[in-house]
Each structure stands twice: as structure tokens, then as C-alpha cells.
Design goal:
Elements: E1 3-7, E2 10-14, H1 21-25, E3 33-35, E4 41-45, E5 48-55, E6 58-62, H2 69-75, H3 82-89, H4 93-101, H5 112-121, H6 127-141, E7 144-147, E8 150-153, H7 158-161, H8 166-174, H9 178-189, H10 195-200, H11 203-210, H12 218-228, H13 239-248, H14 256-267, H15 271-284
Antiparallel strand pairs: 1-2, 2-6, 3-4, 4-5, 5-6, 7-8
Helix pairs in contact: 4-15, 5-6, 5-12, 6-8, 8-9, 11-12, 13-15, 14-15
The chain binds a DNA duplex (13 and 12 nucleotides) through α6, α8, α12 and α13.
DNA sequence: CCTCAGGGCTCTC
DNA sequence: GAGAGCCCTGAG
């Protein structure tokens, strides 16, 4: 069982299992962590800037505070037994293979508003571009956090973005999604939708509510459900998962909605976890075997 | 159910 | 250099 300890520069989570920072930060669920040459990651989560260093089964959170241990436990989903999840998914031959590549994946519990905006930006976009836009928005409207002699920025609250125009968002690199972001912020601040309330709904109902917002279609809604609302039966179908599903399970012309239904039926409560292993797996094949 | 346009940048040719 | 494609959605 893992445990938190303090060390000279922060806190450390000792004896973690099923935990690999590269797999976690590289499986497409988050946009605010950047890898350094030494393999450590620096980033900001809910106003906390830290450097994360993995040494075997110990996770060092440089700059982490002892009073934040509950937060990090939640953020990294530490209470969940990923070994058990993987054992169940391994009954499927494709997953059995996929898990070998991303065995240390965990689904982060991220802040809802940040995830809503980040995944609106993700539509028809590339990961480096998404990261840049999210960073620009944070730098312009978030709070300063000093760490390691540099200035980091928290992702802004809805209020901070309320008066920001679509054109201003566009100037920060979000492209045509500027209108969607401005509209979603307006709906959230004015109370046309409550993310807290949505998160309490059943997955299908929550999905329906989220897709009422401009810029949120079925895929983005599934990402929000999975990465910030703990709806682990959500199955986001992006291009990579689409390719992997069509390659291993389905015909090449099956629609996105059919793939989504297939995944949810096949993997049930574990669909979201399966999706993450499949996404990571698919990206390993980039440029090979027709991917 | 379908098709298509829509930042801007990067990779491919 | 042009062209395709990008963790896709909205409009038609």
C-alpha cells in the first residue's frame, strides 16, 4: 500500500503500483504537464505547481506540500486498484496486448472547468497546439505561481474568462473555437448549466447536458465525463481509438457512434480505462501497419 | 443518416 | 511549396 512522506524538497508517494508518469501524462488526458530531459514532468494542477520525478515505485512531488496529500491522492486516483481493472480487461486479446504498452496509465481526476475548455480546444486540433492555447489562456487570465525560479499560471476560473471575447480567445491560438469557448463560459457563469450538477447525473444524462454547449459534441463530452467527472463507463472515440477499433474489432466503415456504443457495451464500467490503454497503444503504431 | 468548412501549424510529398 | 491531417463540431 502506498504512503505519503515528506522529504527535503516536497512530498513523496512511496510504494505506488500501476503508476508510470510517462504513461499517465502521455495518454492524452491532460495538457499542462511538460517532460524535461531527465524524464521528470513539471506542471500545474489546481493552482499547485510541482515537478514530478519517478524513481521506481516512488513518486517525488518536488514543491508538493504535506497538507495537499489528499488532493494528490484524488488527482492521481490512488485509491483505485488498477491491477484489478487490468486483470479484467486482459480477458480481451487486444486489451491484453494494449496494456503491455501502457501498463502504468491512471485516469487523473482533473478540474471540471479546465477540462471543459481544454477539450473544446482539442476538437480537430493537435496536442502541441492544444497545450499552447491552454498555456496562453492560463498566462493571460490565471493566477501567478512562483516555482523553481519561474512563473507558472493556474488555469483561470470561469469568472476570470467571463468578459473575454471570442476574438481574444482566437488571439491566444484557439482558432475558430474562440466562439465556442466564449459561449460555454457564458453558459457556465450565467448558470445555464452547472458542472457540479451535471457531474452528479448518470453518464447518459450528463452526456446529453454537456452536448447542449457549443463546441461540445459526443467525443468531447465523453472526455469531460471521463477525465473530470469520474464517469468511467464513458468511451471517447477519437481518431486513434477509431483506427484501433476498426482495425481489431469492427469493419473500416463503421460510424463513430457505432464504435462508441460497441466500446461501451463491450467494456461496460471499464470502458474508459479500456479507451486509455487503446489510445496509448494506437499511438505507438503511428505510421505503422496502416495507422 | 450524410457532407462539409473551419485556425494554424506540422508533417509528408 | 502544396497538400493532408489534426484527440471534431455545427450547420446544412
Amino acid at each position: 500500500m502506498y504512503k505519503f512522506e515528506e522529504y527535503s524538497e516536497g512530498i513523496v508517494i512511496k510504494d505506488v503500483k500501476d503508476f508510470n508518469i510517462k504513461h499517465i501524462f502521455d495518454c492524452g488526458q491532460c495538457f499542462r504537464w511538460n517532460e524535461d530531459k531527465d524524464g521528470s514532468y513539471v506542471g500545474v494542477a489546481n493552482k499547485r505547481a510541482v515537478r514530478i520525478i519517478q524513481k521506481d515505485n516512488d513518486i517525488y512531488l518536488k514543491g508538493g506540500k504535506a497538507q495537499d496529500k489528499d488532493f494528490w491522492e484524488y488527482y492521481f486516483d490512488l485509491k483505485r486498484d488498477y491491477g484489478e481493472i487490468k486483470n479484467k480487461l486482459k480477458n480481451d486479446d487486444v486489451l491484453n496486448e494494449a496494456i503491455k504498452y501502457g501498463e502504468g496509465i491512471r485516469i487523473l481526476n482533473q478540474e471540471m472547468f479546465e477540462i471543459v475548455i481544454s477539450f473544446i480546444i482539442s476538437a480537430n486540433n493537435r496536442i502541441p497546439m492544444i497545450k499552447r492555447a491552454v498555456e496562453n489562456i492560463s498566462r493571460s487570465f490565471g493566477d501567478k505561481i512562483e516555482f523553481e525560479g519561474k512563473t507558472f499560471y493556474s488555469f483561470p476560473t470561469p469568472d476570470k474568462l467571463y468578459k473575454v471575447s471570442a476574438d481574444e480567445f482566437k488571439s491566444l491560438g484557439v482558432g475558430f473555437r474562440g466562439e465556442y469557448i466564449a459561449s460555454a463560459v457564458k453558459d457556465i457563469v450565467e448558470g445555464n448549466i452547472s458542472l457540479d450538477e451535471v457531474s452528479k447525473l448518470q453518464t447518459d444524462d450528463a452526456h446529453k447536458e454537456l452536448t447542449k454547449l457549443k463546441g461540445i459534441g459526443p467525443k468531447v463530452a465523453d472526455c469531460i465525463l471521463l477525465f473530470s467527472m469520474q464517469k468511467h463507463d464513458a468511451f471517447p472515440v477519437d481518431v486513434w481509438v477509431k483506427r484501433v477499433m476498426q482495425h481489431f474489432y469492427l469493419a473500416p466503415d463503421v460510424s463513430l457512434n457505432k464504435i462508441r456504443q460497441f466500446g461501451r457495451d463491450k467494456f461496460g464500467d471499464l470502458a474508459g480505462f479500456a479507451q486509455q490503454y487503446l489510445f496509448y497503444y494506437a499511438r505507438e503504431f503511428k505510421g505503422k501497419e496502416g495507422f
